[in-house]
Amino acid sequence: MLPAGGDTVVVDGDALTVEVRSAYDALAQEYASRFAGTEPEQAVDLAMIDHFISLLVGDGPEVLDAGCGNGRISQYLADRGCVVRGVDLSPGMIAMAHRDHPDIATQVASIIHLPSPDDRLDGVVYWYSIIHVADSDLPAVFEEARRVLRPSGVMLVAFQAGEGVSDVGAGFRKLGYDGSLTRFNRTAEQVWGQLTLAGFCEEARLVRRPITEKNDQTFQIVRTSPPRQDIR
After folding, report:
1. 28: which strand partners?
2. Nearest Cα to 53, choosing from 70, 69, 85, 76?
3. What is this structure's pTM?
C-alpha cells in the first residue's frame, strides 16, 4: 500500500526538481480552477484512457496516477472503477487534489521514487508528467514503474511530441509566476526506446495532430508482459 493520503515522501532537491515544484506550487490554485476536470482533453485522448482501463485485470484494479497534479485524471479513473492513488512533486497541487477530490488518496512524492512495494499495482498512468523529467532520469522513471507493476500490469504514458528542450514558463509567467519551467521534448520512438529498455511490451500507440495545442500529442500503452494470443 502507498502511505496514507497527506504523508510526504522526501524528494530530491536538485535544481530541476525545485524549478518544477516552485512553478506548480505558485499556480496550483489557478491551474485547479481552470482545469477542474478533463476540459483540455479531446475525445480521442480520453478513449486511450478508457482503453487502458479495459486492459486492467480484475475488479477494482489498483492504479497509480504518477504526477497527478490536482487529481483531475485520478477522478476520471476512479469514476470508471479504478482504486486510485496519486503522487505529485508539488505540495500545492496535492493540496488542490485533497480539496477537490478528498476521496482519492494523494501525497507528495517524486515519480522517480514511487512510494509503493514491488509488484503491487495493476496500472500506472503518466499523464503528461514525464515532460519535466530530464533525459538522464527517464530510464529510472520507467524502471520504477516496472518495479511496482504486477506481472499483468499496464501503463499509459501521455506527452507532447517533439525534440529538444523548451522553456514553457511563458504561459505560467502570464499568470504571475516569475520563473522558468523546462519541458523535455521527445518523439514517440524515443520514448518507446526507453520503454523497451525497461522491459515493457507495446499494446497501443496514438499520435494525433494538434487541435488547440502547438505539438502533436502522443499516447502509449504498454504491458509488463506480452498480451496472450488468441489462437483460432
Report:
1. none
2. 76
3. 0.90
Whose CA is closest to 129, among 77, 170, 183? 183
Give residue 19's identity as a one-letter amino acid code.
Answer: E
- pLDDT tens for each residue of 115-130: 999 999 999 999 999 9
The answer to whether 178 and 149 are in contact (CB under 8 A) is: no
Identify the structural domains of the chain with CATH numbers, from first to last: 15-223 (3.40.50.150)
How far is the C-alpha of 88 from the C-alpha of 65, rounded, in Å? Answer: 9
Looking at residue 148, its amino acid is V
Regions of the chain short of the pLDDT cut 70: 1-13, 227-232
Q: How far is Cα 81 from Cα 66, in angstroms, rounded to an integer?
A: 18
Query: Residue 130 has what DSSP assignment?
Result: G
Q: How far is CA 211 from CA 40, 87, 214, 226, in A?
A: 11, 29, 8, 33
Residues 96, 89: Cα–Cα separation, whole Å:
13
**Which residues are within 8 A (CB) of 159 and not within 5 positions of it... i.e. 6 or more apart?**
126, 128, 130, 131, 186, 191, 217, 218
> Chain-centre distance of CA 56, in angstroms?
17
Helix (H, G, I), strand (E, B) or coil at 151: strand
**pLDDT 10s digits, 117-172:** 999 999 999 999 999 999 999 999 999 999 999 999 999 999 999 999 988 877 77
Compute the distance between CA of residue 110 and CA of residue 88 in angstroms, rounded to an integer: 6
